[in-house]
Amino acid sequence: MRFSVKYLPTTLFSLKDSNATNSGAKSLFLPSPYAIKLAILNQAITVGGEFEQLSSHNSKQFQFVRDTKISYFIEEGSFFSVNNSFVKILKPAREVGGFIQTVAFREYLFLSSPLEIIFEVATEEQALYLKRYLHRINYFGKRGCFFQFV
């Protein structure tokens, strides 16, 4: 069974690979399936109060999210705009307490049209569970990467 949801990026976004360093990395063009699944788990815990159910990897709810297959669709004629920049950041000082200023590379992206995320699930129960939280998601990855549910 397949269903989809659309999200419109509302700001420039930066979604780094999870293996990237803090001081510099290229951004992913789309939220990774991992970032999408974590956003669903975040909503299930914060809104649904399902921390106890999700704390076990054998729980039905955790398996609903884990076993979901995710793909994407972007409208024809859409475009990405990439902005590379260097920004000042604070990082922990090694020798003494506190922070020091340093420069970091950041890459921000703009997507001109909504991003359609396609979910492939095995059962209707799994689809209903995911749909309960998908409309509540407003960011993927970092909190500054805002997307509006359409």
Describe the model:
With 150 residues, the chain is α+β, with helices and mostly antiparallel strands. The protein has one domain. It is built from four helices and six strands. A four-stranded antiparallel beta sheet has the order 2-5-1-6, with no helix packed on it. It is globular and about 50 Å long.
List its traits.
150 residues, 33% strand, 4-stranded antiparallel beta sheet, two-stranded antiparallel ribbon, alpha+beta
Question: Largest sheet, order of strands side by side?
Answer: 2-5-1-6
Quote the beta fraction. Answer: 25-35%
Q: Stretches where pLDDT falls below 50 for ≥5 residues?
A: none
Shape: globular
Radius of gyration in whole Å, from Cα? 18 Å
**How many alpha or pi helices?**
4
SSE pattern:
EHHHEEEEHE
Q: Tally of extended strands? A: 6
Chain-averaged pLDDT: 88
Helix content: 10-25%
Number of domains: 1
**Biggest β-sheet: count, sense, barrel?**
4 strands, antiparallel
Between the first and last Cα atoms, what is the distance in angstroms? 21 Å
Global structural class: alpha+beta
Topology:
Blueprint: E1 2-9, H1 33-46, H2 51-54, H3 60-66, E2 69-74, E3 80-92, E4 99-111, E5 115-120, H4 124-134, E6 147-149
Antiparallel strand pairs: 1-5, 1-6, 2-5, 3-4
Summarize the structure.
This protein is of the alpha+beta class. Helix content is 24%, strand content 33%.
